C-alpha cells in the first residue's frame, strides 16, 4: 500500500473527504461524461453533488470518505501515480487560510487570531473551525480554501483550532472600487448602471463559466480571454465581487488550471484593461 493511500484511508476513518492529486497539485483528468460541469456535480446537472463517474474528475466534489471508492479498481491505479493527498475543507466544516510566503505569514500573525497551523513548502496553512465561501488572492500570498475547493493534506498541524473569525470572513467581501475618472461607464439617461442588474451580471458570469468548461484545448488562453471579457464588461462599476471571481476560478481549476495561474491570468487581464 502506498503512503498516500494509507494517509487517505486514515483520514477517511476520521470522516475527512479525500482524493488523490497528480503532479502539480491538480486532480486527475476529467471523464468524458461530465467534463463540462464546472460545479463538480453529477453529469448534466447544475447543482453540486458527488461525482457519479468512477474517477475523481471533479476535484472537491469527488472527495470521499468511502473506503470502497478509495481502494476500488478505478482509484487504485491513481494512488500509484499520486503526488499528494487532498481533502475538502468545507466538507468537514473547516476553512484554510493558505499563506504562500513569509510576508503573508507575518501578516497573518499580526492580523488573524491564532489557530492550528500547518507548515507548507513556502508558507503555512491556518485552519479555522467553520466553513465559508472560498476565494483566491484575497491579498498578496493568501487564499481562502473552504467550500467547493480542495486543499493538500500536509499533516494535522499544531495548536488549538479557533472558531472562524469575522476578520477571515471579511477577506472575501468586495471592497468598494475606487472611481477612475473617464473610465467608469455612465448609464444613458442617468439610470442605474446595467452591470448592477442581478440578471445581467448572473448571465454574464454563467456564460463565462460555460466558455471555460467547454474549452477543448488551449485552456490557459481561454481562461485569460474569458477573464478579460468579464472584467471589460463588469469590472469598472463595482458590480463584481470576490464570489463572482471565485466561480470563474473554480471553473478554470476543474479544467486543470492552478490557483496561481488563475490569479496571474486575472491580474494580467486587469493590467491589460488599465485597472
> Which spans have pLDDT < 50 for at least 5 consecutive residues?
35-49, 175-192
- Average pLDDT number: 80
- Give the overall silhouette: globular
Largest sheet: 6 strands, mixed
What portion of the residues fall into strands of 2 or more residues?
A: 5-15%
What is the chains' assembly state? single chain
Per DSSP, the total helix count is 9
* CA(first)-CA(last) distance: 51 Å
Structural features, described:
- This protein is of the alpha+beta class and 275 residues long.
- Helix content is 34%, strand content 13%.
- The chain is built from nine helices and nine strands.
- It has helices at residues 3-13, 67-70, 76-81, 102-111, 166-169, 198-213, 219-234, 242-254, 259-272; strands spanning 18-21, 84-87, 94-99, 116-119, 124-129, 135-139, 142-145, 151-152, 162-163.
- Strands 3, 4, 5, 6, 7 and 9 form a six-stranded mixed β-sheet that branches.
- Helix 6 runs antiparallel to helix 7 and helix 6 packs parallel to helix 8.
- It is globular.
- Residues 35-49 and 175-192 have low confidence and may be disordered.
